[in-house]
Amino acid sequence: MPIKHKRILLKLSGEALMGDTAYGIDRGTLQAMVADIAEIHALGVEVAVVIGGGNIFRGMALGAAGMDRATGDYMGMLATVMNSLALQDALKNVGIPARAQSALKIEQVLEPYIRPKALRYLEEGKVVIFAAGTGNPFFTTDTAAALRGAEIGAEIVLKATKVDGIYTADPKKDPNATRYSSISFDEAISKNLAVMDATAFALCRDQKLPIRVFSIVKPGALKRIVLGEDEGTLVHI
Ligand SMILES: Nc1ncnc2c1ncn2[C@@H]1O[C@H](COP(=O)(O)OP(=O)(O)OP(=O)(O)O)[C@@H](O)[C@H]1O
Ligand SMILES: O=c1ccn([C@@H]2O[C@H](COP(=O)(O)O)[C@@H](O)[C@H]2O)c(=O)[nH]1
Q1: Does some domain include residue 1?
Q2: Verdict on whether the full-model pTM lies above 0.80
Q3: Ligand 1: residues within 6 Å at CB?
Q4: Alpha carbons 190 and 168: distance in angstroms, whole number
Q5: How many domains, in total, are found in the chain?
Q6: Which residues pair with 112 in a beta bridge?
Q7: Which of 51, 148, 182, 188 minimizes the number of CB atoms within 10 Å of its CB?
Q8: Is this prediction's ipTM beyond 0.95?
Q9: Does residue 2 fall inside a structural domain?
Q10: What are the tens digits of pLDDT across the range 58-115?
């Protein structure tokens, strides 16, 4: 079967990285994510990854607890750096070349984000991990995924999360919610569907970059998507 998407931006949920634990990185979950990436890497897909930080810190939650919001956001971005380091290490452990780049300057830890270098890594078959989100507070890693996806000319943003698509309402709160198989950007924005923030939806819409939201826990889902099969929810123009 031919691959449908040659270059993708994969957004991995930070929150999902906890697995069944209450905080941090669950080793088994991380290895399962790596196994999914390995399957599509073996098909020749060029893979760039943005990983969230919800398993460690979210600026909004820290802000609600009384911390200065921007400070909380920088802590959230640093959380994504930790997740990116763990992912880079786990990929290398299974023989997949991976390079993480940071949107915040921490040169002793990660090389900085340099777009031409990232593009070269992708052409060389290396998995590129974009750490520290956009590098700016008041954004999210979903927006970083949209931004980097557009910058590298990805054909699609694949958001791997804890639910298996976009629903009429949060399926964790509303048992009667039903899943869309596809939805337009305008509808997703106007209905305030909180699976992704409006900034990310708007950026992808303006750049004509489709998004597919799918379950990170469903075995083989990522591979089926790159082979063109129907999974989760497609967000389109
Ligand atoms: N209409 C909706 N359809 C699907 N999921 C929804 C909807 N509204 C809210 N959600 C929630 O959005 C969550 C996914 O978004 P969220 O940004 O919180 O997580 P993530 O991107 O997977 O994690 P992280 O930010 O740590 O990377 C789902 O787990 C789901 O409970
Ligand atoms: O560009 C960005 C990206 C992220 N943040 C902060 O990091 C946390 C974790 O990211 P998630 O997307 O929620 O997983 C986020 O809550 C923000 O606080 C940021 O400030 N800028």
Answers
A1: no
A2: yes
A3: 13-16, 52, 54, 141, 161-163, 166-167, 169-172, 193-195
A4: 12
A5: 1
A6: 102
A7: 182
A8: yes
A9: no
A10: 999 999 999 999 999 999 999 999 999 999 999 999 999 999 999 999 999 999 999 9
